C-alpha cells in the first residue's frame, strides 16, 4: 500500500529524489520506484466543496441579516416559527441526503448550524434581552454535538471562534467560565479522535482564557499576576512535555505564552504586590532565556532582543527626545540583526555536511 | 461514511435545548409577570446580529443617596461584589418609581434585581447609578431615530412585565 503524504511533502520528496538522481546516488528507475511508494493526498476542500460551503455561509448570512433587519411586516412569533421550521428542515435535509449527496448534506448541516444562531438572536430580539454574551456561548456549545456527529473540523473551528468571542467579551464581567470549560472538554475529546493543529491551538488558547474566568469565580480576586505567572509556567511546561499528537503545535503555543506573559511580568505594574517581584522575575526570566541562548536556540535570541527593547522603551521614553529614541533603537536592532545573522551562519557551519 | 449514530440526536436536541433555555425565563415572565411602566430616554445604536435597538436609561437607574441602604453604601467592594441588589418599586397610576435599594429581598413581588458590581456613585449628580440588564429595546430597521427624536420632546414610557426580579420590556410609547 502506498504511503499517503500531503501534496507539499510529495513535492519535496520529488525534488529530493531528483537531487539524489543528479548526484548519481539513485538512477532514474530507482527514483521512480521510490516515488511510487508515496501518494499525494488532497486534504483541502475540492472546488465543489468550496462552492457548497460558500453557498451555506451565504444562506446563513442572509438569514442572520433578515433577523437583524427586524422586518415589521411580519410578526416576531411568525418569524420564530418559520426559523424553527427552516432549522428542522435543514437538519432533516442534511440527514436525508447524507449517503447520496454528501456535499449537499454537509452544506445543509452548516445551514442548520447558522440558523440555530439566528434563532437565538431572534429570541433575544423578541424579549429585548441585552446582546453580546449568552447567545454566542450557547451557539458555540450547541453545535459541538454536530461536530462530533459529522467529524467536521470546520464546525469545531466555528464553535471555537464563537466560544472565544464569548470568552473574551465576558472576561471581566462574566462568571460563566465553567460553561466555557465544558466546551473545551468536549472539543479536547473531539481532538483526541480527529487531528487538527488549528483546533488544538485554539482549544489551548481557550483553555488559558478559562483559567482567567475560573480565577474570577473566587470572591475578591485581584492578583492578576497569578494567572500571568501560571500562563508562563504552562507555556514553558508544554514545551518540555508536549501533547503526544501535537508536538509542534504544543511547542509553538507554549513558546508564545512563555514570551508574551513572561514579558508582561517584567513590567512593575503587572505585579500589584508590595514587594518588587518584577525584579526577581526579570532576573529569572533573563537567566532562563540565556540558558536557552547558550543551547543555541535562535528563538531565545529574538526573545532577548524583545526583552532589551522592552526595557529600552520603558526607561528611556520620558528622558530622550524621539529622534534619539529611534536612532538608538535602530542601532540596537541593527546590532542584534548582525548578531542574529552571525549566529545563524555559525549554526549552519556546525550542521553535518552531506 | 462511518458516522456515530448516537450523536445525531444530540446534534439536533442540544441546539433545541439551548433555544429553550434562552426562551424560558422571558416566557414565564411574560405569562405570569406583573405589568409596570417605567420612564426612560432612549438613544439608537445598531448591533451586527440583533439589528437596531434603543438603549433605555431608566429613571429608576438613578437613586438618590437616601434611597440606598446604609449597608449598600458602605459595603466592602470585594466582599459584596457577587451580591444581588434589590430595587424596591412602587406603582402610582401604573408608573413605577424607586423606593429603596437594598441587599434585602422585598416581601412583595414588585422589584428588580441588579448586581452590586455595577453600582457607582456619580460625583456630579451625587446620585447612585444602578445599570439594569434590560437596557435594550429592539426596533425595526431605521425606526430608532424617530424614537430618539421623540425622546428629546419628552419622556418615553416602557411597559414591562416583572417577575422574581426579572423583567421583559413589552412595548414603548
From TrEMBL, chain B:
InterPro entries xrefs: GDYXXLXY
Pfam families according to UniProt: GDYXXLXY
Superkingdom of the organism of origin: Bacteria
Protein name: GDYXXLXY domain-containing protein
Annotated source species: Peribacillus glennii
Amino acid at each position: 500500500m502506498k504511503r499517503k503524504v500531503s501534496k507539499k511533502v510529495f513535492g519535496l520528496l520529488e525534488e529530493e529524489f531528483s537531487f539524489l538522481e543528479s548526484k548519481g546516488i539513485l538512477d532514474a528507475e530507482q527514483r521512480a520506484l521510490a516515488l511510487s511508494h508515496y501518494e499525494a493526498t488532497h486534504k483541502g476542500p475540492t472546488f465543489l466543496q468550496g462552492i457548497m460551503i460558500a453557498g451555506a455561509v451565504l444562506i446563513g448570512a442572509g438569514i442572520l441579516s433578515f433577523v437583524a433587519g427586524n422586518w415589521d411586516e411580519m410578526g416576531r412569533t411568525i418569524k420564530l416559527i418559520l426559523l424553527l421550521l427552516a432549522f428542522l428542515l435543514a437538519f432533516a435535509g442534511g440527514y436525508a441526503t447524507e449517503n447520496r449527496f454528501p456535499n449537499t448534506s454537509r452544506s445543509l448541516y452548516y445551514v442548520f448550524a447558522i440558523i440555530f444562531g439566528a434563532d437565538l438572536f431572534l429570541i433575544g430580539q423578541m424579549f429585548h434581552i441585552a446582546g453580546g454574551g449568552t447567545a454566542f456561548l450557547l451557539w458555540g456549545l450547541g453545535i459541538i454535538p454536530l461536530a462530533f456527529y459529522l467529524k467536521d473540523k470546520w464546525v469545531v473551528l466555528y464553535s471555537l471562534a464563537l466560544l472565544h468571542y464569548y470568552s473574551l467579551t465576558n472576561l471581566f464581567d462574566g462568571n460563566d467560565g465553567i460553561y466555557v470549560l465544558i466546551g473545551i472538554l468536549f472539543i479536547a475529546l473531539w481532538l483526541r479522535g480527529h487531528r487538527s493543529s488549528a483546533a488544538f491551538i485554539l482549544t489551548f488558547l481557550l483553555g488559558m482564557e478559562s483559567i482567567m474566568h475560573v480565577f474570577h469565580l473566587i470572591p475578591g480576586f485581584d492578583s492578576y499576576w497569578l494567572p500571568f505567572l501560571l500562563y508562563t509556567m504552562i507555556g514553558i511546561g508544554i514545551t518540555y512535555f508536549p501533547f503526544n499528537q501535537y508536538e509542534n503545535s504544543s511547542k509553538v503555543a507554549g513558546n508564545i505564552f512563555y514570551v508574551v506573559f513572561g514579558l508582561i511580568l517584567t513590567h512593575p505594574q503587572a505585579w500589584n504586590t508590595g514587594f518588587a517581584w518584577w525584579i526577581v522575575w526579570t532576573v529569572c526570566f533573563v537567566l532562563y532565556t540565556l540558558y536557552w541562548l547558550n543551547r543555541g536556540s535562535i528563538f531565545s535570541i529574538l526573545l532577548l532582543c524583545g526583552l532589551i527593547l522592552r526595557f529600552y522603551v520603558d526607561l528611556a521614553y520620558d528622558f530622550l527626545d524621539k529622534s534619539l529614541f529611534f536612532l538608538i533603537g535602530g542601532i540596537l536592532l541593527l546590532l542584534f540583526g548582525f548578531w542574529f545573522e552571525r549566529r545563524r551562519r555559525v549554526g549552519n557551519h556546525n550542521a553535518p555536511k552531506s | 461514511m462511518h458516522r456515530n449514530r448516537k450523536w445525531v440526536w444530540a446534534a439536533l436536541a442540544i441546539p433545541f435545548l439551548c433555544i429553550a433555555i434562552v426562551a424560558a425565563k422571558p416566557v414565564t415572565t411574560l405569562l405570569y409577570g406583573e405589568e409596570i411602566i417605567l420612564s426612560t430616554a432612549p438613544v439608537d445604536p445598531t448591533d451586527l446580529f440583533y439589528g437596531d435597538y434603543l438603549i433605555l436609561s431608566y429613571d429608576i437607574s438613578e437613586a438618590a443617596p437616601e434611597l440606598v441602604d446604609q449597608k449598600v453604601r458602605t459595603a466592602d467592594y470585594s466582599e459584596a461584589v457577587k451580591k444581588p441588589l434589590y430595587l424596591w418599586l412602587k406603582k402610582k397610576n401604573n408608573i413605577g418609581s424607586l423606593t429603596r435599594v437594598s441587599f434585602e429581598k422585598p416581601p412583595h413581588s414588585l422589584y428588580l434585581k441588579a448586581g452590586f458590581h455595577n453600582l457607582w456613585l456619580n460625583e456630579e449628580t451625587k446620585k447612585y447609578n444602578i445599570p439594569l440588564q434590560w437596557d435594550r429595546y429592539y426596533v425595526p430597521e431605521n425606526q430608532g431615530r424617530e424614537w430618539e427624536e421623540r425622546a428629546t420632546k419628552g419622556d418615553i414610557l416602557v411597559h414591562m412585565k416583572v417577575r422574581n426580579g426579572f423583567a421583559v420590556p413589552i412595548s414603548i410609547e
